Amino acid sequence: MPWRQVNARQDLHYISMTPSKTMKENYKAIRGYLGLENQEPLLAQQILSMDLLIWNCKGAGNQRFKRNLKELVQIHKPELMVIMETKVEFKSMGMFFNYMEFTASGHVDPIGRSGGIWMLWNPNVVNVRVVEPSSQQITATISRQDFPDWLLLAVYASPNSAKRDDLWAQLETIAQHIEEPWLVARDFNDFTAPTNKRSFHTSQQQHLSQEQRRSRKFTERIDSCKLIDLGCTGPQMTWSNNRKNRANTIVRLDKALCNTK
256 forms bridges with which residues in the sheet? Predict the structure, then answer.
């Protein structure tokens, strides 16, 4: 499944994210997970029903955002978009999305100038039922003619560890009861291995131990929800604090996870 990571601070602000293995190799792996090695391979049209664009825009509503989003839509032609860290209320966009034919939406407005998640889609091609929006995520059931329904959970996790605990409690509850295909994607504000974070720290040994505990906890949470990392191509790290030299920290905070279905 194509997955796009966008860096709005660069002039060239999009990167095409594609699977590192061929479709045939991925189908073989999935059949292995499910114990279906001897059955007919899955067909592409049975799985890939739509393109999805998830963008942390770091502030919406200005002319640069509008110009960049129009370009992204023109290039990738997504049926559904999720825009994160909007920093402005959805109503401030007026008719902008309607002109792009994204006439249906579900949204969580920011608190002050922090956060904000918007989910937008074209109801002529896909039906989306938003079921559980919150400041850290929007959950929606995605329906399309001739394709099975699936669940999308677009995540913008809090930097506060206690709030992230609440988010993962929700995910674990969903995982216990879900029967349909499930995609959980975007910014988890966490990492699965210390190598996914690079920074200079004066107390390196103690810092490494803390990073190992944090990454182990995140990995255990992914496993407890029976989620699989889809992987991606592109930059190894997806977030930077934009500081220079020894003050610089870069981390891979972004992932796309799914269940075996």
Answer: 185
Beta-bridge mates of residue 4:
16
Task: Locate the domains of the chain by residue range.
Answer: 3-258
Three-state DSSP class for 57?
coil
DSSP lists the bridge partners of residue 82 as 54, 119
The per-residue DSSP string of 78-142 comes to -SEEEEE---S-GGGGTTHHHHTT--EEEEE--BTTB--EEEEE-TTT-EEEE---BTTEEEEEE
The answer to whether 139 and 130 have CB atoms below 8 angstroms apart is yes
Cβ pair 140, 171 in contact under 8 A: no
| Tokens found for residue 57 | 């825009």
For the stretch 207-226, pLDDT in tens is 557 777 878 888 899 999 99
Query: Which one, of 205, 214, 140, 221, lies nearest residue 173 by Cα?
Result: 221
Q: Which CATH superfamily is domain 3-258 in?
A: Endonuclease/exonuclease/phosphatase (3.60.10.10)
Of the chain, the percentage scoring pLDDT greater than 90 comes to: 41
